[in-house]
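Pilot study result, target chain (124 residues):
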Amino acid sequence: MLRLLVDMNLSVEWIPVLRGAGHDAVHWLDVGDPRALDSILMQWAVAHHRAVLTHDLDFGTALALSGAGKPSVIQIRTLNTLPHHLSKILLPLLERYRQDIEHGALIIADERRQRVRILPLQRD
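Predicted structure:
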């Protein structure tokens, strides 16, 4: 079971899908200010031991700049981010990389491939 925080840019429809797969999932809309900066969301995720599921491309940059080892971020890079389209990709991905996510990773996924980078990210 992973502890996940679903970002505002993803539908609340993800919550029952993730919970149905055995994960402890909450949506930012239910636990934080919808207008909060990404940094506040990231701090909350760290404090509550949750990985962030997002469609926001800025999270990878924030992790690289901060040098932080947490939170893990799962970045979805598709046009259609609804569960009926992506759950067949995302749910197996969460299981495949569960240990990496628990220890600290940036996972970037689209319909064709996934990339995993272990945290903290090294700046080149």
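One observation from the pilot: Residues 55 and 61 are 13 Å apart (CA to CA). A full batch analysis is planned for the follow-on phase.
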